[in-house]
Amino acid sequence: MRKLPFKERSLLFAPMEGVTDEPYRIAIDRAFPEWDYLCTDFLRVPTVGKFSNEKILSHYGHKVLANSQLRKKTGFQILTSYRAQTEDTVKKIEAINEITHLDLNLGCPSKKVNAHKGGAYLLSEMKELREIIQIIRKNYSKTFTVKIRIGYKNTDKFFDSLKLFEDEGVDAITIHGRTRDELYRGIANWDYIKKAVQSVSIPVIGNGDVWTLRDIDRMFTQVGCDSIMLGRGALKTPWLATLYNQYRDNYDELDDDFLLEERKKYLQNYFDELEREYKKVQTKQVNVLNRFKSFSRYLFDDFQNGDAVRSSFQRAESLDHFKDLLYGI
Ligand SMILES: Cc1cc2nc3c(=O)[nH]c(=O)nc-3n(C[C@H](O)[C@H](O)[C@H](O)COP(=O)(O)O)c2cc1C
To answer: At the topology level of CATH, where does 11-252 sit?
Structure first.
């Protein structure tokens, strides 16, 4: 088993399509360096044609590639299917010395992706899954992890898939506690994550509905996972890892008013760093504004009249207007 690029009890910022592109990851690392690890969103391996090296490098990010500190804390995620050019893509990623961690997305619930037998679909087809895992393991010598849901239509094959990963030399498993068919409904089932921790000898990273410091504590103590990955919780509170570093031993004493004041303070910092990065790559202000609006989905949930606050940001007519609203909260 290879060493993971993050220590035990790390907090990982989840890969998120439409969010975790290079400028976002750079901005997050600058604003909230307490996140132990980041990851690209998925690069979908083509069925027809092959990726150029440039496609792979730019998905990871040239600036990240050139920054050894950030590189060490950034994984590369792919999404593939049975007929796709997995071997070719993995060989190309292997050849880039600076990329030292490859993660396979086995959780994507998109209809289109699943219809092409990719993403979470593979959790229902052990034979195809094994072949893909073997191709990757054979061609990738560095850390290789998978990110799964607890099943496709149901959880019947959950334990078979865990054993498969372990037998085929996968280095760690991130588990989102929902099946594909559950999409984002209900609450993530952490019992399955706990059972996985008890049944495999490789590290398990828990994922799903970790929103608060209390959730982080519960995930570590009740589920016993090695590390935790946060998706929507990280979008709602991008400074959660910072708070965790400061208050992990006394989070119970923090009241809602204090956390709201922290939120106001950190929001400014968050958008300042995002603006700095996105302005380097976006020539049109309106594009930056639209990104900011898309990042705002969960940020205002804890405000009194959260819906009204969110809509005021969604209606902002310019970047300056958006920033004025931020100064005013
Ligand atoms: C907007 C969005 C985009 C996502 N894109 C990806 C992705 O590219 N790769 C991936 O493995 N998971 C992706 N996910 C799933 C998350 O990484 C995570 O597993 C899921 O949201 C459950 O965790 P949470 O309850 O902390 O949000 C995405 C989730 C969201 C909300």
So the answer is: TIM Barrel (3.20.20)
Strand partners, 173: 146, 204
The residue extents of the domains of the chain are 11-252, 254-328
pLDDT score, position 283 = 87
3-class DSSP state for residue 253? helix
- Asked about 39 being catalytic, the answer comes back as no
| Residue (of 49, 33, 55) closest to 84 by Cα position | 49
Strand partners, 329: none
Q: Is the pLDDT of residue 254 over 90?
A: yes
pLDDT digits (tens, 9 = 90+) for 113-139: 999 999 999 999 999 999 999 999 999
* Digit-coded pLDDT (tens) for 33-85: 999 999 999 999 999 999 999 999 999 999 999 999 999 999 999 999 999 99
Two structure tokens written together for 218: 């519960």
Q: Whose CA is nearest to atom 20 of ligand 1?
A: 231
232 lines ligand 1 (CB under 6 A): yes
CA dihedral 48, 143, 64, 263 (to 10 degrees): 110
pLDDT of res. 286: 96
> 190-194 long-range contacts, Cβ below 8 Å, gap at least 24?
190/219, 190/222, 190/223, 192/150, 192/155, 192/158, 193/150, 193/223, 193/225, 194/222, 194/223, 194/224, 194/225
